[in-house]
Amino acid sequence: MLPKIGITTVHQANPRNGSPYTILSDCYIDAVSRTGGLPLLLPIMTDEAQLDLYVREMDGFIFSGGIDVSPSFYGENPHALLGDTSIQLDRCQIPLMQKIIAARKPFLAICRGNQVLNVACGGTLYQDNTLQGKETFKHMQATDRGDISHLVHLEPGSTFHRLFGDRVWTNSYHHQSVRDLGEGLRICGRAEDGIVEAIELVDYPCGLGIQWHPEIMFHTDDHMKPLFEELIKAACR
Question: Is 155 a catalytic residue?
């Protein structure tokens, strides 16, 4: 039986009438399918019982990219450089992440998902990468979404180092990043400007967070396939 991989969705306003609808890039679905999992889309729910059902019924999870996490969830006021946020989305995904961690279910958290992971564990974010306090390079590339943008240097002993070695070329589509690290997490990779690009839960069966978008890169070549294989392997245990 294929492992069931729940993929978080986001909402967007219909440009014609303004009504909300749920969306997800096909690249996430394709990545799970190509590595032996059954992709299942998770609607945005805030009911505790429904979130518990998600956790119980899924074998693994992918937290997809999307808009900014509201700084109210880590005790800050909104900075002028903060992007779009959604309290409803945060009230779904942050508790869902906490429930998944409590159940020790495997997950891969991508871009916004990486930020949700850190906040769910009590960490904080740079509301914009420029607020790191030193010069950063462009993390919102304007080239094709599958193109590589910059190197990420990986920490020995981490899952990422085991999968990719000392460094990996990634694409880049984020203006926020990890500031204060959440409880139980460790930093596993940084860009050369110091921005945190990869984190993982310590002593956990596949609890990975990354700032880049491997599902888009995997759509064009197999370089990012090991990340999804790692998730599927853990979900099969």
Answer: no
